Predict the 3D structure of the following.
Amino acid sequence: MTSINTLAQLLSQVTTAPAAEGAEEVLPPAVMAILAGLVAVEALGLWLLTALGAVRRDRLLLRQAPARPNRLHLLLALGLIVLQFILEGGAGLLLAPPAPGVPAEPTRLTEMHLVAMWIGRLLTLGVALWLARRTFAMGIGVGGLGLTSRRLGSDTLRGLGGLLAVYPVVLLLIVIAVRFVPLEHQGQHPVLEFVTTPGRGVGWQVLAVLTAVGLAPLLEELIFRGLLQSALRGPLGGPWGAILGAAAIFAGLHITAGLGNLHAIVPLGALAIGLGYLYERTGRLWPSIVMHAAFNAISLAATYAEAARAA
């Protein structure tokens, strides 16, 4: 679950507010200039660190990315994504069958759909871990898939630092996108819509929050970075090709699954590139999981803030 739409909604309200009645809009260039300035400062800082030798160029460019020897076929990794949709959809039909004659609302999430989501994703998580154990030479830990608690503290900081580095880029791309995509065509992630729907009990709210900041980052990073990106390394010629390929699939599936609109595909792709780079740089999944969870937490906080403002 990675919602660009909530941030887009908030930014579009901020960046399209006129300075006065009948006046020209003045905030969009200012906001874009600030974000562009932050991105430029980051790029300059990275260049200086590289020039001073504080960051090794070969490591920065992933020329020494940790190897993850495996015999995972690309079709198996892609099939796991399909399996998740099947399991979630099947559980949803069993727990919350559509009423006869009532049109289905595919993006409307009910309590039973949330339970079905957990069932489907936990089953998929089990299959993914089993598949990784069978196909990675070093298993799911260090040297293999990279799902390990080793260096947990430093990897948590790496994940938060990665988000700080990527976030200005994502926001800049959102601000650019909302200038071209009408607000009425921007959707909302079902989980984020669920938590702000009146009448939800505290227990259901907590379960939805755990979905957003726990289950979703864990499963998506395991599948898209751990399995899919690893499977793409060979066919696409190394770490960079794998990062871009997995990011394109990640962003594209979020759009086609109804979790966003075309305005979100480029920001989502930028976020996914950052997640993939962090995985290749460290060889461990925890930094990417933390970065993904922190991004979702910000989206969740923005959703609550927007709901409170509208109340």
Summary: The two ends are 25 Å apart (CA to CA). Residues 16-27 have pLDDT under 50 and may be disordered.
